[in-house]
Amino acid sequence: MAKVKIMADSTCDLSKDLVQEFDITIIPLHIMLGNKDYEDGRGIVPGDIIKWSDETKMTPKTAAPGTDTIEEIFAPYKDDDTEIICFTISEEMSTTANVVRLMSQTMDMEERVHVVDSRNLSTGIGLLVLEACDMASLGMSANVIVDQINELIPKVRASFVVDTLTYLHRGGRCSAVAAIAGTVLGLHPEIVVRDGKMGVGRKYRGRMDKVTLDYAKALEKELLNAKPGRVFITHSPTDETIIREVRRYLESLGYFDRILETEAGGVVTSHCGPGTLGVLFISAE
Fold it and tell me: What distance lies between CA 139 and its chain's CA centroid?
């Protein structure tokens, strides 16, 4: 049986430790700060993005991976029988999946490159990637893995609560009136991924330490009906005390085998700003 190689674009927000542990290849998206172009996770960190955005009052632009980058990553597998499963951010949010498909065709690898549109972002993708890695380690074929992953995609529960509306406003995802009103009222919306798109869920008010804990507790019923293997706490630069409180709450449930913490990469940070925190998991139902 052919070897299966798992790849994902950089929006999966998996930590370097997890990437190494599961032998995942990451394909970086582009982040543009003005006229400077960076590859996500290479030579730029979320703190740099926040600093630039606050100084310029602009939101960085993000773009799909370059074809040259994809070609370089695929090249070692071009002349063997390795099957590649490549996870991408939702096609509703980016052209990344299509670029990967086109490059696999250009390199005559389309029969061995399986592009999975995650219909998600951040560790909503990461959860699927790790599930695929588990399946590959059991010797499952690429086709079987993709079929099982497609069944899991609608079960991913990805949401975040944001500290500030400023970044969403700068990126055109929130009107000026809504941003001003939200700031005055101290509102912190929950951003929820549904059907491959970002929408607004609950709205919270108050200090972020209280908001994030209220947000996590509001998920309790769903958390206790999740696949117990993993749950993610994923955040942009955030007060460590807040992260610890959310972790303590998840630990108190005594339900998950692994509580994984990762820092959101450049794409989520660019659009949601500092202080964003999410709890992400896969429903068992």
Answer: 26
Tell me the Cα Rg of the chain.
Answer: 19
DSSP result, 265-277: -HHHHHHH-TT-E
Q: What is the pLDDT of residues 23-49, one digit of tens each?
A: 999 999 999 998 899 999 887 888 888
The answer to whether 50 touches 269, Cβ cutoff 8 Å, is yes
* Region of residue 254 (phi > 0: left; psi between -120 and 50: alpha; otherwise: beta): left
Sign of CA dihedral 145, 150, 155, 156: positive
Amino acid at the residue 193: V
SS3 assignment, position 31: strand
User: DSSP readout, 33-69?
Assistant: ETTEEEETTBS--HHHHHHHHHHHT-PPEEEPPPHHH
pTM over 0.85: yes
Residue 63 to residue 42: CA distance in whole angstroms: 15
DSSP assignment letter at 12: G
- Helices 208-218 and 240-253 pack at an angle, to 10 degrees, of 20
pLDDT digits (tens, 9 = 90+) for 213-262: 999 999 999 999 999 999 999 999 899 999 999 999 999 999 999 999 99
In the numeric block, which tokens belong to residue 131? Answer: 């599930």
CB 279 within 8 A of CB 231: yes
Q: Give the Cα separation of 228 and 213 in Å (integer).
A: 20
User: Whose CA is closest to 265, among 133, 123, 164, 105?
Assistant: 123
Measure the CA–CA gap between 12 and 22, rounded to whole angstroms. 14
